[in-house]
């Protein structure tokens, strides 16, 4: 059957900086599909990810690999063959846990496959020789990555409520009255929510800047903390070595005192940094709460805009009905004027007939 995808998810892909071996370098501009592949012919599991036509992850799973969760949404593993460390940033903790479970499962399967292969070699007692193309990777296309992607979600359609139609007996309003009522109501609501949105955007920008600065400070302090710990361990080892040298007991004692003071200062510095990290974590939590409030107000603003659109539709319908009523009234006035003109003519004719009959009576 060749190589087939057996599990897929989406994540942001990173690699360790080959120069510093500390900083992460993003290899994808957005979340991409990351898939587990199984090659049944060679009994090999691989992790593969493509960004367009470029392979940004091509890692063969071995029994000695370990997938480490470094945070709630980030995990990493080292690939000795590629001489690098891969990192994945997921959208949720659930997706990270699912990927880690699959990693452990396929790692165990790779270990069992290796043991079975070794048992076969021992039973046959003949050295197995790998083919020259054994380590070549099978060609992949972006379409082959779309395996069992557990990130896909069904589309949700929202049915809008039917709009209430005006009754047939609604009184006609003039254009000016309707326009004043609608625009005064709409402008008041729009100004209020626009002010709220502008305030929230300003707060969001400030909180985002503070969050980025806090995150950068936390990373820097973590690096300093690791450096302090390494320095403390080195100093402890140096103290032990100096204590073993009996010929320099006085110098060792003095140096030991200085080193102990240095260690105490470093420990106090570490405590201060840990307290600062806790404070920054609280600020990050507060920023997240404010972000949730902003999202809630944005949703309310969208609902008000939808309601305004409904009111505009009702206003358009009323204007059409008003125009139709005015046209009917104008036609009625024209018809009535025509009837009055005909009636005036008939009255004039009757008057002449009456005068003629009176003259005839007088003549007779």
Following the backbone from N to C, one meets helices and strands in this order, namely EEEEEEEEHHH
The radius of gyration computed from the alpha-carbon positions, rounded to a whole number of angstroms, is 42 Å
What global shape is seen? elongated
Number of H- or I-type helical stretches: 3
C-alpha termini separation = 129 Å
Helical coverage, percent range: 55-70%
Determine the mean pLDDT.
79
**How big a fraction of the residues is strand?**
5-15%
Q: Structural class of the helices, strands and pairings?
A: alpha+beta
Query: How many runs of DSSP E, i.e. beta strands?
Result: 8
The largest β sheet comes out as: 8 strands, antiparallel
Low-pLDDT regions: 126-175
Written account of the structure:
With 364 residues, the chain is an alpha+beta fold. The protein is 60% helix and 15% strand. It is built from three helices and eight strands. The protein has helices at 93-124, 175-244, 249-363; strands at 3-16, 24-26, 32-39, 44-51, 54-60, 68-69, 74-79, 84-89. Strands 1, 2, 3, 4, 5, 6, 7 and 8 form an eight-stranded antiparallel sheet that branches. A hairpin with a 2-residue loop joins strand 4 (44-51) and strand 5 (54-60). Helix 2 (175-244) packs antiparallel against helix 3 (249-363). The longest helix is centred in the C-terminal third of the chain and has 115 residues, at 249-363. 8% of the residues are buried. Mean pLDDT is 79; it is low at 126-175.
């Amino acid at each position: 059957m060749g190589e087939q995808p057996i599990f897929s998810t989406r994540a942001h892909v990173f690699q360790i900086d080959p120069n510093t071996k500390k900083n992460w370098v993003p290899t994808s501009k957005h979340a991409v599909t990351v898939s587990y592949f199984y090659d049944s012919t060679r009994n090999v599991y691989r992790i593969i990810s493509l960004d367009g036509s470029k392979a940004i992850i091509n890692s063969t799973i071995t029994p000695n690999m370990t997938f480490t969760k470094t945070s709630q949404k980030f995990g990493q593993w080292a690939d000795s063959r590629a001489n690098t460390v891969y990192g994945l940033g997921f959208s949720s903790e659930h997706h990270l846990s699912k990927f880690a479970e699959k990693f452990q499962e396929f790692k165990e399967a790779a270990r069992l496959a290796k043991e079975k292969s070794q048992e076969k070699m021992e039973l046959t007692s003949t050295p197995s020789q790998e083919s020259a193309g054994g380590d070549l990777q099978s060609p992949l296309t972006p379409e082959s990555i779309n395996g069992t992607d557990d990130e896909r979600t069904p589309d949700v359609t929202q049915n809008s409520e039917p709009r209430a139609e005006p009754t047939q007996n609604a009184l006609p309003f003039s254009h000016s009255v309707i326009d004043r009522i609608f625009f005064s109501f709409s402008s008041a609501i729009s100004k209020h929510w626009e002010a709220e949105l502008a305030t929230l955007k300003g707060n969001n920008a400030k909180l985002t800047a503070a969050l980025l600065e806090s995150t950068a400070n936390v990373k820097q302090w973590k690096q300093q903390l690791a450096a302090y710990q390494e320095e403390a361990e080195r100093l402890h080892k140096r103290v032990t070595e100096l204590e073993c040298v009996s010929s320099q007991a006085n110098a060792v004692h003095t140096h030991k005192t200085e080193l102990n003071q240095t260690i105490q200062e470093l420990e106090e510095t570490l405590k201060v940094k840990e307290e600062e990290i806790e404070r920054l974590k609280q600020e990050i939590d507060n920023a997240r709460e404010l972000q949730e409030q902003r999202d809630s107000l944005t949703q309310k603003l969208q609902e008000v805009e939808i309601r305004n659109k409904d009111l505009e539709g009702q206003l358009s319908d009323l204007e059409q009905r008003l125009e139709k009523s005015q046209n009917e009234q104008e036609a009625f006035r024209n018809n009535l004027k025509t009837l009055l003109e005909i009636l005036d003519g008939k009255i004039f004719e009757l008057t002449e007939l009456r005068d003629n009959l009176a003259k005839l009576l007088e003549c007779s």
